[in-house]
Write a sequence for this structure.
């Protein structure tokens, strides 16, 4: 096998290049580890070499970490512990290497890649946006197991290190520089010279002097045992509040850091490897790794075989300057850098939409994601009107008007009259079939659905919905543009509610039934949050807007009958003007931008007396199983092309607990036979909406699953 490490020696400096053959990114495999050891041994012996300067040979990627596929293949904790200890031993050799090592970082420097850089003696990084440094291991259900839990806190202090490790955050190079992870920040063209220069200076006896940032407070909290104890106590509290005991990795990482600071590096490394071993074989880690690979596959999947080249979108036009339209506009400008033209019925609405879109840009500036200069340039890309001016030059038009078939069809007619023949028309409908909207189209093959989630700037999912008549080029264009907007795009079939709203509807409805049976509003939310959702069903309703939910539910009820009829509770709230957070009142009260607790008036309005309702276990069971049943049914109808798509869309669309792997993985874990049995029991007691669907019945009969 061709080697991945090559080097040349000039003027006493060995310039080493890491370029894993045949792979898009560098990763540290077992074979690479051995090569590293052999290379450093050779360089150590070579009298010509006084110092080492280390680079990646990949264009925009440094090292993506340990090879995830390798540790997924491991079946025992002991084996995983050995893998981690092996990585640590290799990096110990680098850290103790008799000759100084400077590393030049450009592109992603993650996990084991950053751990390697931390073991080197000097770190230079480019100020390029692709240069990101981080320890994302906890997002895979493991912890930094090649010394990261030891070296990072020693370099930048426990507080800053925990902040990065426990959230699995990656930071841009500028931030990493401020934190003290990187010694020097440079533009890409001079990375090589500066790194080699640093290696040469170190060979001549110079040593970098590092001062930890954080000032007196930093010293108080990081520099003495009492302060540190406070830091760990606060971090532990925060981890428990966010993971609710569902994710073991952050707590284990915290322990590895704390243990190492208390007992020294060698003991710390040992504990780190043990904990890594335990975590690597947990079911949670398996699920999170599956999500990583599924998301990676989706980055390349256009939802059709032999996808044609997408139309390059340079100008985007948006009809509807409301909350969604403005969200799409701001995100498109920030992420894709396209020219955006907004249109609404009157100029006041357009102006409001432009202001809201601009807020997304302002927020990026505030969080230092873009510079002042970029901000000014991006703001200039936003424009609007109350007529279709400028639409003739747009390659893509996204409609984000009121969720009503007649209104959407009217907009489609008007847009077709204003755009060029090749333009793509995408509807941001959440439930209405695209084929219905396209019934009035002159060019139905250019019509597609692009269903964004609210708030657009933050929600990572895009459902792309071609109708039977949509041209393949239009599908690849919608997917490609969604990706440019930073979204994970999943292509789903044109059925009412598509995938996400289809499986959410019965879950929301069940919450309504449970309320009427006496379950308390905040108890329903609390139970589902502890089950792993980011928010409970009632809060979700308030966030989505009860009027929006009512509309969606009307479409689904009409399409699928009684099974998806909305619980009677919701329309009463809409009639009372309780539209959710946006109206300042829904199930909860809102004030000053914050949720203020359950509104007692709701029980009165609905004529209910909260008495606790069914047992907690039954509440969870009903809410979960009704969703799994609908998901299975939708799979049977081909709404998603593969279970992978259904699971990723549920996780990214509404936060189905990632550690459960998605509704279809969870259904597999429970097993069809058990699911069918429990659904039948629920159907007997609560009616036909629980009748197990054919897909599950068939799976139970044959002993099959969604995933092979
Ligand atoms: N292990 C195995 N494969 C990896 C990998 C890794 N660490 N990182 C990336 N890949 C693979 C991807 O699966 C993909 O494979 P494919 O071409 O066969 O589909 C290929 O490399 C390219 O990846 P992307 O499509 O994701 O490329 P991008 O340019 O969009 O993104 C990236 C690059 C930012 C590096 C992204 O791939 C990424 O985030 N990778 C994972 C980083 C990570 O989690 N590292 C920690 C690993 S665990 C670890 O280091 C443990 C240690 O502490 C002991």
């Amino acid at each position: 096998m061709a080697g991945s490490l090559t080097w040349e020696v000039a003027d006493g400096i060995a310039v080493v290049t890491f370029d894993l053959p045949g792979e898009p990114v560098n990763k540290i495999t077992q074979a690479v580890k051995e090569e590293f050891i052999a290379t450093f041994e050779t360089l150590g012996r070579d009298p010509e070499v006084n110092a080492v300067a280390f680079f990646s040979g990949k264009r925009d990627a440094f090292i993506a970490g340990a090879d995830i596929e390798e540790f997924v293949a491991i079946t025992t904790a002991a084996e995983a512990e050995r893998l981690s200890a092996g990585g640590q031993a290799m990096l110990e050799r680098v850290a103790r290497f008799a000759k100084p090592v400077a590393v030049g970082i450009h592109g992603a420097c993650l996990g084991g890649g950053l751990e390697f850089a931390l073991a080197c003696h000097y770190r230079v990084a480019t100020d390029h946006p692709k240069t990101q440094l981080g320890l994302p291991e906890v997002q895979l259900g493991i912890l930094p197991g090649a010394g990261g839990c030891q070296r990072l806190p020693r370099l930048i202090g426990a507080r800053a290190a925990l902040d990065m490790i426990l959230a699995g955050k990656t930071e841009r190079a500028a931030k990493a520089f401020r934190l003290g992870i990187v010694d020097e920040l440079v533009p890409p063209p001079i990375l090589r010279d500066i790194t080699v220069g640093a290696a040469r200076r170190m060979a001549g006896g110079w040593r970098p002097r590092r001062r930890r940032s954080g000032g007196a407070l930093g010293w108080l909290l990081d520099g003495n045992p009492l302060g540190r104890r406070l830091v760990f106590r606060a971090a532990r509290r925060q981890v428990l509040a966010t993971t609710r005991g569902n994710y073991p990795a952050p707590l284990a990482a915290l322990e590895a850091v704390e243990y190492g600071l208390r007992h020294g590096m060698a003991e710390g490394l040992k504990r780190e490897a043990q904990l890594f071993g335990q975590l690597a074989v947990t079911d949670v880690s398996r699920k999170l790794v599956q999500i990583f690979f599924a998301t990676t596959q989706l980055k390349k999947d256009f939802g059709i075989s032999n996808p044609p080249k997408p139309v390059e979108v340079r100008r985007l036009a948006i009809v509807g300057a409301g909350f969604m339209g403005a969200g799409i506009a701001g995100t498109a400008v920030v992420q894709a850098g396209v020219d955006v033209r907004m249109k609404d019925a009157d100029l006041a609405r357009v102006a409001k939409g432009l202001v809201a879109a601009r807020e997304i840009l302002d927020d990026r500036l505030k969080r230092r994601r873009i510079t002042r200069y970029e901000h000014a340039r991006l703001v200039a890309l936003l424009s609007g009107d109350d007529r279709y001016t400028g639409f003739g030059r747009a390659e893509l038009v996204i409609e984000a008007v009121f969720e009503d078939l007649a209104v959407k069809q009217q907009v489609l007619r008007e847009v077709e009259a204003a755009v060029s023949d090749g333009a793509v028309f995408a509807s941001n409908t959440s439930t209405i079939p695209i084929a219905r909207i396209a019934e009035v189209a002159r060019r139905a093959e250019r019509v597609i659905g692009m269903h964004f989630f609210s708030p657009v700037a933050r929600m990572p999912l895009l459902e792309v919905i071609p109708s039977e008549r949509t041209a393949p080029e239009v599908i690849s264009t919608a997917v490609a543009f969604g990706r440019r907007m930073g979204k994970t795009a999943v292509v789903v079939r044109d059925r009412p509610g598509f995938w996400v709203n289809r499986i959410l509807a019965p879950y929301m409805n069940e919450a309504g039934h449970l309320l009427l049976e006496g379950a308390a509003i905040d108890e329903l939310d609390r139970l589902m949050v502890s089950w792993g959702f980011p928010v409970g069903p009632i809060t979700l309703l308030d966030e989505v807007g009860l009027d929006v939910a009512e509309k969606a539910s009307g479409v689904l009820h009409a399409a699928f009958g009684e099974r998806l009829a909305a619980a009677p509770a919701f329309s009463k709230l809409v009639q009372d003007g309780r539209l959710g957070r946006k109206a300042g009142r829904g199930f909860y009260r809102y004030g000053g931008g914050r949720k203020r607790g359950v509104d007692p008036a709701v029980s009165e309005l609905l004529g209910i007396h909260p008495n606790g309702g069914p047992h907690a276990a039954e509440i969870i069971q009903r809410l979960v199983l009704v969703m799994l049943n609908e998901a299975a049914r939708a799979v049977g109808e081909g709404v998603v092309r593969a279970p992978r798509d259904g699971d990723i869309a549920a996780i990214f669309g509404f936060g189905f607990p990632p550690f459960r792997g998605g509704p279809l993985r969870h259904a597999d874990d429970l097993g069809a036979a058990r699911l069918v049995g429990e659904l039948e029991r629920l159907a007997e007691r609560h009616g036909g909406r629980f009748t197990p669907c054919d897909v599950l019945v068939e799976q139970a009969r044959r002993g099959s699953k969604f995933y092979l």
